[in-house]
Amino acid sequence: MYLIIGSTGLLGQALTKRFDCKIIPKSIYGEWYDKSKKSEITQYFRSIGTNKTIILFIATGITDSQNTNLKNINYLLPKNIILALQEENTQIVTFGSILEYLMPELNSYSKSKSMLSKFIQNQDLNLKNLFHIRLHTIYGAQRIHQHMFLGQIMNSLRSNSIFKMSSGNQLREYHHIDDILKCIELILKKNGAGIINLNHGKPVRLIDLAQFLFRFFSKEHLLEVDKKNIITNEIHQKLTKHYAYSKLPSRNYLYDIANYFQDQLLN
Residue 14: in which H helix or E strand, if any? Predict the structure, then answer.
């Protein structure tokens, strides 16, 4: 039996559809970040009344570092749920960002997710029913985050406006939402617990991605690169491929993202 908290985001919508999840509404979980709600959380899951193992996806997450609820939603909410369900027949899956591993002090968002990781890694808890999956940037969903790199390029292509960027030497992995869902299925089939860095091991430089996309749509004149603006406190290393990706067909990510853009621009 699959349940989900946080069903409205890109990942949450995809998980809900793929696993036919029962949605726990915000009206129920909205204050579960409060440590006084532990018994309420436990009783809610006991009231479901099933002998089957419950798999709970916690897909809530705030990426805006200025949001005042960041710590409550990204850290305290999943923490309290984990503690409340420690002795229950529930498999919990939480989600984070690879940034919390590589650049935990980058911003308030990565700090909040890093706090969750440190809590999960606490050896005294001996958590046996929990996967925390660190994700890279997602594409392939029905919509795209406008404030992120791909979203900004999309806006430039749609509006024929200039896109300004730094030298773009930093590396990023882009993951198709369908591949992420297939990997989650494979992970859940394996007994175990712990923190997973879901890497496919095929990063691209941001400059290479931007140049490819603008060239693909014959709009190279819209791209302005400040070669002197070199970002040093960023991701520049290739990461080890997770075993689940060895089970999936390989993708040419530049062409795949371009085709995704083409579909989005036609809508």
Answer: helix 10-19
pTM: 0.92
User: Quick one: CA dihedral 138, 241, 110, 88, positive or negative?
Assistant: positive
Q: Give the N- to C-terminal CA distance of the chain in Å, as an integer.
A: 35
CA–CA separation, 45 vs 47, rounded Å? 5
Q: Which residue has the tokens 């696993």?
A: 19
Q: How far is Cα 132 from Cα 114, in angstroms, rounded to an integer?
A: 11
Averaged pLDDT, 60-68? 82
Asked if residue 267 belongs to a domain, the reply is no
For residue 223, what are the β-bridge partners?
163
Specify burial of residue 162 (Cβ count, 10 A radius: 0-12, 13-18, 19+): exposed
Tracing tokens 């726990």 back to the chain, one arrives at 24
Q: How many domains does the chain have?
A: 1
Contact yes or no for 141/95 (Cβ under 8 A): no
Cα–Cα distance measured from residue 25 to residue 5, given in angstroms and rounded to the nearest whole number: 7
How big is the chain, counted in residues? Answer: 267
Backbone angles phi, psi at 174, to 5 degrees: -115, 130
pLDDT, one tens digit per residue, over 201-221 is 999 999 999 999 999 999 999
What range defines the domain where residue 66 resides?
Answer: 1-135
CA atoms within 13 A on the CB side of 1: 13
Both structure tokens of 47: 């009231």
Residue (of 220, 205, 213) closest to 166 by Cα position: 205
- The enclosing domain of 32 has a CATH number of 3.40.50.720
